[in-house]
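From the shared-data thread, chain only:
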Amino acid sequence: MIFLVIFGCMVGRKPYYKVESTRHRMNLFAVLVGETSTARKGTATDRVIQVLSQVDPNFFDVCQVSGLSSGEGLIHAIRDPREEDVDVNGSKGPAHFEKRVVDHGVDDKRLLVVEAEFGSVLQQADRAGNILSTTMRNAWDGKALRVMSRSNKDCCKEPHMALIGNVTLEELRLRLSLSDQSNGFGNRILWVGARRSKELAHGGQVLDPGKLEKLVGRLQTALFTAKQTDQIRWDDAAAVAWTSAYHELVDGSQGVYGRMTARAAPLVARLASIFALLDCSDRIRSQHLEAAMEVWAYCDDSVLHFFGDSIGNETADAILRKLHASSGGLTRNQLSQALGNHKGKELLNQALAALKRAGRITSESVQTGGRPAELWKVLAK
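Structure, as tokens:
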């Protein structure tokens, strides 16, 4: 996963490839989620960078950064040249303005952000007035980045950004705000469950120099070919398979899981494009799509594991937990009591309605000796 993200950022200064009539952005964000120290998230990133830095050392010298804290800072890192009207006479006579370059900007618009503590990025993005989340969403989309401010005129018309982050599951659940779960920030990221596959007391084997040299050579060839490629097409078999896969990827699942996986289709298309480029091909073939779907399946399973049946509403999630714990369902009064009588009638009604719309619960009328009551139950899947 880390390898695909970085290679997609390395392929060139053009932030997209034309796939048939559609522009598929190469911008990819991936965050590894696992236990601190034991999941080896940082080690995995370091090993990939160790190999790819031999493919193109200049890329990592120029384009790799860390320390995301604001949208303005991100834009400044890849800003375009800027001209302003400058009084060339100064104080020597009548004002005479000419266009002058006041900031030469940054020539290479590729930006690889590696964040070992992605939880701090989420914390910064959630601060009032911080535009980091919005800026990152626009960067993923390949939209022009700019700040509407008289004191900050930085902009970048064609950003080409990739992100690799590491975070623990506890931090992710704590720091990822409800807003970023639902505004499209969360579903632009490939969330990857990470854990070490084995214990290596002595650090594992060193890569064989001969095999490493061959791998680097193959990657340099793929990188060179990718930079010469202007358009990628689906071959006939892959086009048919993509039509079927696309239908599955836009199924519209509900809850936090649904919102966090809502951009499955464009993510798979980007992954398939990168697999094709790694194969020195300007055609996305069935094997490239299959590989991309396997990567996505792992990310999809990871999100389901991280967020389960949560729908992102605190009261609704609490109700769902109480109903799961009950044997025969709960009435509205019983639910209110189970929640400590801290939820008002309107809040309870909204949460129940949200759960019913999401297909998580059902209700039936039951006799109580007086006025019939609504009995709420978890809907069997």
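The mean pLDDT is 87.
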